Amino acid sequence: MQFAMPPVLSAITLAISDTDQYEHPDSPGEVMDMADLREVWTQIPDPRDRRGRRHPLVVILALVQAAITSGAPSYAAIRHWITHAPQHVLEQVGARRDRRTGRYTAPHPDTVCRTIAQVNAAHVDAAYAAHRASQITDFYDDPEELIPMTVDGKTQRGTATSDKAAQHRLGAQLAHDAVVVAQIDVDSKNNEITAFAPLLDQIGCLKNVVISADMMHTRHGHARYLHQRDAFYVFPVGGNQPGLFDELDALAWDEVPVGWTTYDRGHGRTEIIQVMPTPPGARFPHVKQVFLIERHVYDLEWKPLSAVAVLGVTNLPERLADPRRLAELVRGERSIENKDHYVRDVTFGEDRCRVRTASAPSILATMRSYGIGALRLLGFTNIAEGTRWARDDFRNPLIALGLTM
Questions:
Q1: Helix 109-118 and helix 57-69: axis angle, to 10°?
Q2: Against a cut of 0.90, is the pTM above it?
Q3: Which of 59, 120, 153, 360 has the lowest tally of Cβ within 10 angstroms?
Q4: Within 13 Å and on the Cβ side, how many CA atoms surround 32?
Q5: Alpha carbon 214 to chain centroid distance?
Q6: pLDDT bucket at 139, cuts 50 / 70 / 90
């Protein structure tokens, strides 16, 4: 069967350096080579009793990840994909071969669902994060180039029950490439603050990374943490920092020239940014510049509909981020909602998914984000189109995941 391969992004190299390594949090002396997903999966502890294991955990994870990359939105769809996987696909993922018949056998769907629920989600998150983090240097050739990354949380509404709140996760995404690098479970949206550092701790190197986030994360501790890790921040300032907000609001913005303006006639939007050096005695750590962004929305006849003003701070010096660059970095804060959270809900049906058992919701969320990233790295800007391509041939998701031999 012939199948079409989408255009590969010339700026992105999927190969991972042989020197990229990851030390498992539960095995301080054990170091793994981050060669591909198979190597990642081998470092995730198998929770099952050694007696009676017929199918390796690596095989189970590979089949589930491939099914999800094909757009499987639920356990039923995952089970269907695995049940109908042809022999050549089972061979590629390393499935067990029946000595009597000579055929490769897939694990029973019940075994798959039960095993996914038993695996420790934190181990899965750490392994996937280390794998993606090891690729960042391939996405950005210049070691001095700024790397925009946005942090935001998402609630998995389908996990809510009558006596239990919906599960919430915090994630970090490369804003330009729309590839999720790391995720972590949090108790609720309010606890995103305490999960900020543990989330980014999963990423080995943050040098020259520029973190953008919503006002919840505009905190002194976050700024100091990023400074210690040679990273930068671009934070909006609001009511959670009243002293700083009043200080910035009182500045003579009417005397500051407009640094950059964006004009989007099609969407009826304009954005204006003004930037000035940090005023003396600013009440925020390591801040180098402060800015004011005004966003205006118009109807089809160009009549004003709304106007919003946002104050902000950054530790980026002017030589690294002029007004235009700052406007781009602030705008990138919304990328994770548009290019990951929205896609997980609409294309992969995450909010409709009723999987609630143990670690399963977290692991499936990580796999959905990874599948989205894998399709984007193949050149798909429309992920629904990418999942249709992946469904055209059972080999296609293996190609997207780099699991072909």
A1: 100
A2: no
A3: 120
A4: 23
A5: 16
A6: confident
The tokens of 40 are what?
A: 């990642």
Neighbours of 124 (CB within 10 A): 22
What pLDDT digit, counting tens, does each position of 352-378 carry?
A: 777 767 888 899 999 999 999 999 999
Round to whole Å and give the CA distance between 232 and 235. 10
- Strand, helix or coil at 293? strand
Collapse the DSSP code of 276 into the 3-class scheme (helix H, G, I; strand E, B; otherwise coil) and give the result.
Answer: strand
In contact, 31 and 134? CB cutoff 8 Å: no
**Nearest alpha carbon to residue 132 among 379, 333, 371:** 371
User: Distance between CA 263 and CA 81 in Å, rounded?
Assistant: 46
**Residue type at position 247:** E
Amino acid at 144: E
- DSSP-assigned states of every residue in 36-105: SHHHHHHTSPP-S-STT--S-HHHHHHHHHHHHHTT--SHHHHHHHHHT--HHHHHHTT-EE-TTT--EE
Q: How far is CA 363 from the centre of its chain?
A: 13
